[in-house]
Amino acid sequence: MQRRLEKNWDLTIGPDTVRLFILKAKALSAAVNEDYADGAEHEIEFDGDTHDNHHHDGLAEESSENLTEEELRELIDDLNVDEAAELVALAWVGRGDYDAAEWVDAVTAARERANKRTAKYLLGMPLLADWLEEGLEAIGA
C-alpha cells in the first residue's frame, strides 16, 4: 500500500473521470471473473447427437462484455496526450512501479512512451481498477 502524500497534485485528467474508468474496469473484470467462476471456460465436449442439437446462447453475454470493453477503450482513446499519460502514471503508482513522490517522473515516462495503443496497454492490466484506485489515493486525489 502506498503512503499518501499531503500534497494534492493538479491533474489534467479529473479524478471523477478516473473513477468512471475504475467503475468500467471493475464491471469488465467482474464480467470476466463471473464467467470463469461459473466454470464456463468455453470448452465444451459433445458426445453423440448432442453436437447437432447444440445452440450457443453465449453470444449475447459475449457482446455485452465486448460492449463494456469497447466502451472503456473508446473513453481511453478520447483522452488527450496529457490525460492519457496521467492515467498510465496513476496505474503505475498504484501498481508500485513509482512512489507518489515520483509522480512527475511517472507522468514524464508515460508521456515518452505514449502511442496509439494506450487503451490496449491499460486494458491488459489484470488489476487496472485496483491500481487506478490506489494511484488516486497515493497522490491524494
Write the layout of secondary structure elements.
Elements: H1 15-37, H2 50-53, H3 59-77, H4 81-95, H5 103-112, H6 118-123, H7 128-139
Region (Disordered): 46-67
Biased composition (Basic and acidic residues): 46-59
Pfam families: DUF3775
Protein model, in words:
There is one protein chain. The chain has 141 residues and is mainly alpha-helical. The chain has one domain (15-139). 63% of the residues lie in helices and 0% in strands. It contains seven helices and no strands. Helix 1 (15-37) runs antiparallel to helix 7, helix 4 (81-95) crosses helix 5 and helix 4 (81-95) crosses helix 7 (128-139). The radius of gyration is 19 Å and the shape is globular. The chain starts with 14 loop residues before the first helix and ends with a helix. Mean pLDDT is 78; it is low at 1-6, 34-46 and 50-64.
Order of helices and strands: HHHHHHH
Strand content: under 5%
Poorly predicted ranges:
1-6, 34-46, 50-64
How much is the average pLDDT? Answer: 78
